[in-house]
Design goal:
The complex is a heterodimer of chains A (about 90) and B (about 200). With about 90 residues, chain A is an all-alpha fold. Chain A has two helices and no strands. Chain A has one domain. Chain A is elongated and about 45 Å long. Chain B is elongated. The chains are: A mainly alpha (about 90), B mainly alpha (about 200).
Amino acid sequence: MPHCNNQYELMNLINKLSFALDDTRLFLDTHPDNQEALEYFERTMHLRNRAVNDYTAKYGPVNQYVLNTSQGYNWNSCPLPWNGGI
Amino acid sequence: MWSYEKRLQYPVNIKKPNAKYAQIIISQYGGPDGEMGASMRYLSQKFAMPDNRVAGLLNDIGTEELGHLEIVGALVHQLTRGIDVAEVKSSGFDKYFVDHTLGIWPQAAGGVPFNACEFQSKGDPITDMIEDMAAEQKARTTYDNILRLIDDPDVRDVIKFLRTREIVHFQRFGEGLRLIQDNLNSKNFYACNPAFDNGCGR
């Protein structure tokens, strides 16, 4: 399981950016005309996309639709999230 | 359709197993105000919700609740990981263990199995929104009670995260209720079903 222990920092960033989007999405559901929230979503989304692409290229997949197949089939390598994996 | 992300919404890394705590926390997996009921409630109610914004809100909060179900399952799993039979007996986990070993199964802390009657999907937008607001507060109370019973800071940290989400969801559902009511005539919207009765609340 290469790289399984040196990727926590990047996943931590992905978790934080994802949570910011999760929370803002709910706000936008009930405030669809709030321009400030929409701009915040846009900025955060770009940061998150960059972090996820970086993670997928270096360590392995985050989303089940986006695998880096040059690493082989690595969807289930490294500990799984509920087992303390990330 | 859902797409799995290979991460928890909030990380769970429990260092000290404690089967007694696991028995308490499993109530938020399959208990009366747990995350299974929450996710199924919102993801079922969305179909008959006429306001697109509120239907979307139900879908998004229901999706987040599935993530919370996974977090609570991870807590129970890690709190029982590696425990031996002596700990199973001394912690009182034996009554769960006999049927499920260390598998995760939806039940309340008192052993009552998960039942769809824990939630409602009434097909009336105002009724459903008010149920959802109550549900979020009931879950918040349960997390408050868990925090009264548990000392481990690694567990408390995760429970505190989940607790704050209940408060945010309550706020958002309150706004959803307002969006629905703003489209109705306030003289009569509690006397009929705006999703079914012709002219109700118009």
